[in-house]
Design a protein that fits this description.
This protein has helices at about 35-50, 65-85, 145-150, 155-170, 185-200, and strands at about 5-10, 15-20, 30, 50-60, 95, 110, 115-120, 125-130, 175-180. By secondary structure, it is α+β, with helices and mostly antiparallel strands. The protein has a single domain (about 5-210), classed as Imidazole glycerol phosphate dehydratase, domain 1 (Ribosomal Protein S5, domain 2). Strands 5, 6, 7, 8 and 9 form a five-stranded mixed beta sheet that branches. A four-stranded mixed beta sheet has the order 1-2-4-3, covered by helices on one side. Strand 3, helix 1 and strand 4 form a beta-alpha-beta unit. Helix 1 (about 35-50) packs parallel to helix 5 and helix 2 (about 65-85) packs parallel to helix 4. The radius of gyration is 17 Å and the shape is globular. The two termini are about 20 Å apart. About 40% of the residues are buried. Residues about 100-105 have low confidence and may be disordered.
């Protein structure tokens, strides 16, 4: 059976990233990006997507957290694409689970007062849909918060850059939606957990396909 692992080295004038990924791991991770909240998000992604992830990033945090977060999304997307290989036998579509009814195929994930939804399709076509977050109130933040606090309302746009980078490089359709919620930490965490569960399902092999590609096109 195909070994679904990948290693990515990405070096620019803004970030230096080394990443290891095992799609068939056990949810173990070791993350160091210099942004504690972002480390937390990537750690829970690995746990709930049931992948093993090691990531080291040295970024220009003295400028802003933007390059670090976006480039980590790019590197993770590249790793997932590489690890999926030819995609033979892949489920392809992932909508995670619904805690209210795990058989409905809906990717609703609650986080206290928030409810987030994610659907992914490893289609070979990059596209991000980002709904329900633009209406949330923005607030002024200090330079320290701007650099470190990805969970603040100001940083919802930063989370979007991570998911956009991932979708572009994994070449997948990625739909993320906040149905409701208010507390910034809960909103971002809910989105990452929904993302993780959708990826977990989509990356699995479907034994009924017996190595066939999950498409009528003949290629993904």
């Amino acid at each position: 059976m195909q070994d679904r692992r990948a290693q990515i080295k990405r070096v620019t004038n803004e970030t230096q990233i080394r990443l290891k990924l095992d799609l068939d791991g056990r949810g173990q991770s070791s993350i160091q990006t210099g942004i504690p909240f972002f480390d937390h998000m990537l750690t829970l992604f690995a746990k709930h997507a049931v992948v093993d992830l090691t990531l080291r990033c040295k970024g220009d945090l003295e400028v802003d957290a933007h390059h670090t977060v976006e480039d980590c999304g790019i590197a993770l997307g590249q790793a997932v694409k590489a690890a999926l290989g030819d995609k033979a036998g892949l489920r392809r579509y992932g909508s995670g689970f619904d805690p209210r009814n795990p058989f409905t195929g809906e990717a609703y994930v609650p986080m206290d007062e928030c409810l987030a939804r994610c659907v992914v399709d490893f289609s070979g076509r990059p596209f991000l849909v980002w709904r329900g977050l633009d209406s949330l109130a923005f607030r002024r933040v200090t330079p320290t918060e701007k650099q470190q606090d990805m969970s603040s309302a100001f940083r919802f746009g930063l989370a979007r850059e991570f998911f956009q980078g991932f979708a572009n490089e994994a070449r997948c359709n990625l739909h993320l939606e906040l149905l409701y919620g208010a507390e910034p930490h809960h909103v971002v965490e809910g989105l990452f957990k929904a993302f993780a569960k959708a990826v977990d399902f989509a990356k699995q092999r479907d034994p009924r396909l017996a190595g066939q590609l999950p498409t009528t096109k003949g290629t993904l």
